[in-house]
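Worked Example 4.2. Consider the chain below.
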Amino acid sequence: MPKLPAFHNPFPGWRDQVRHLRTFRSWRWSGYVLWSAAFLWLLIWFLFARGLPSADALLAYQPPLPTNVRGYDGEPIADFARERRVQLSYAEYPPVLIDAFISAEDKTFFSHPGIDVGGLAGAVWDYTTKLGSGRRAKGGSTITQQVAKNLIVGDDYSISRKIREAILAFRIEGALTKQQILEIYLNQIFLGRNAYGVQSASRAYFRKDVGELTLPEAAYLAILPKAPSNYTVERHADRALERRNYVLQQMQENGFITAEQRQAAAAAPLGIVPRYAPRASVGGYFMEEVRRQLIERYGETAEDGPNSVYSGGLWVRTSYDGKVQEAAEDALRDGLVRFEAAAGWRGRIARIDIDDDWARSLANLNVGAGYSNWSPAVVLSKQGSEAEIGFENGSRGTLPSSGATMPKAGVGGRAFDFLKAGDVIVVRREGNGGWTLRSIPSISGGMVVQNPHTGQILAMQGGFDSRGSSFNRATQAKRQPGSTFKPFVYAAALDNGMTPASIIIDGPFCVYQSARLGQKCFKNFSGSNAGQQTMRWGVEQSRNLMTVRTASQIGMDKVVRTAKVMGIGDYPPYLAYALGAGETTVQQIVNAYSIFANQGRAVTPTVIDYVQDRNGKLIWRADKRACEGCNMAQYDGRPMPRPRLRSKQVIDAMTAYQMLHIMEGVVERGTATVLRDLGRPMFGKTGTSSGPTNVWFVGGSADMVGGLYLGYDNPRSMGGYAQGGTIAAPIFRAFAAKAMKDMPVVPFRAPPGIRMIRIDRKTGRRVFGAWPDGSYYSPVIWEAFKPESEPRRTIRRDEIAKRAAPAARATTDSEFLQSQDGIY
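Applying the procedure from the previous section yields the following structure tokens:
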């Protein structure tokens, strides 16, 4: 067979051309894929990445932190937070805690780029299969994604959220180190019991700091981020143990612990402490005033600024003195209870249903029981001579009929007989462990204690208990001060030519009002008149007629001007205001009395000394005085620098001291003698407004001034027997006996120019020579006079000798000065 000729290819090199064509097509399709991927990425970025924070914003992120409040001595006393959180650095978290959270939440955390591809794919598949079923798919989020979700993206349930979360996770990984990411996570996450962050949760569940946690305790905290309510010891203890032991198993598999450590930890109980919410915050009314002022200055939340009260992490130093505050609270509460003790039991506070949730219903009433051994309770049942009662924490007790024998106010009969199931009452824990029925008084009041030299408020009590009533009667209640206003009338008189020895008639005094109203006649509280008396005597005995006569003589315009510059109020120039008819607050009038003790220089009442931001930078200070050289790098040996005194002189210093000296007489011989035995120089003034609807006392020592009032919130008569000297002054005495117990005994210091002269307290005449001991004449005292106002009327030595009893021995000047009170 003939051999065929070889095939001739008409297209030489075609194989190479096909190979090139295939290569071209491959590159072209690769380009299509790349361009499509880029377009898809840009589309996703445009749709989902807009509005996400930049790397710089992530680096500057700071978690919301509570505001921490400290007392005058730097001790922490309170915090203001909606999220309980304590921020720690990564290095402060123990390795066992980090290992536990890594094992529970994200075992590849230190190696993945922000997302776990396998976990994310599983989460997407789970979401797809459950779409429309109403069931929630598993998360599949890494710790980085949880940081993104918690900080920025939110928690809406959607594919778009997961995409934004993934984009932000990549961005976070590029901006922060793994340690920084884990630090944010451990400080940010919510773990139940209102605890945000692991340190706060450690305190809430175990009463420990993170450095003190054991292995099983750290493993328990690591199970909480997903759903804290699923692992509560109260309802799901078995589930919590199972999940905790799973985390321990994961820690072993990851090489963090040994098998022996896991077995020992798995055998340990959960060890969670009972959830405890304190019944009342420390210094309730004081702290509420601090919170209110901070909110006015910085706002409440992050939207109001970086230094907001509930997220800014402020450090606040206050003037709060725990000892003084406790003394004020106890004294005022005791006085309120004592005033209404004879009235009997005032009845139930409220009613609730007795069901499975009665404890929560009782707690939600927010009953303020005041004393630490008083508690709100609900009557669960009553049989025979006993009533079963329940408390806010779910515990129960027994109230015997012998513990509720007081009569019911306005009705009579034993209080026990009126108790019914569902009644909310207040009971007191007795020393023998039993309970007795008590009443929260319906009368209320307010009290403020202040440093007269700086204006710092040391204590503030605005009622019986801030939990029961947030209305602060120390700062918000406008009440008539009654006779506590009189010192300002006489201060104006001293500034206008009168002296403590000036003679004022204590007799009938009427003023013409109008043709329709006719005359208005004033009268003393006792209804009697005493004739000619000195100004001092009139203040000591709180004589109304002498006060209005003085105000009329000098002019009410001068009186109201004095009241205004001393910060009490801005009143019209009517004579009734000389007797305290104008309204003011406890804080205002205590501050005005502090001006007397501060030699007439203005002071501003403050509860906050200074504020620092979360980094310690000073952002506000109450004392704005400059102190040149106070921050010198090296002491130069010269006198220590002091801030300059820049307080305004609102009244004459000698006038202030004269009034202070006169009000010492109120304590020694007048309406506040209940304070006389405190063993230190004291001044003050009692007050009783018309009705009487309010009773007052304001005064104190050289270094502590306070004041209080008692009265019903809806003003009504307290009873004709109610007086400031018999009700308010004893309350202040009880306070001062505790608060001033360890204070130095400091005399009131007279300013330059004051001269001390012996005068007859009732006649105002200057006494020369000795005064006969045991005579029937009025006592002699040392009185304070300005240089230009010495008394001209005198009682001379020869007149004394002529009028004295023959057997009376003359007391020498030196003996007089050595006498205890300066009076005989």
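The chain is about 35% helix and 15% strand. The longest helix spans residues 14-49. Compare this with Example 4.1 before moving on.
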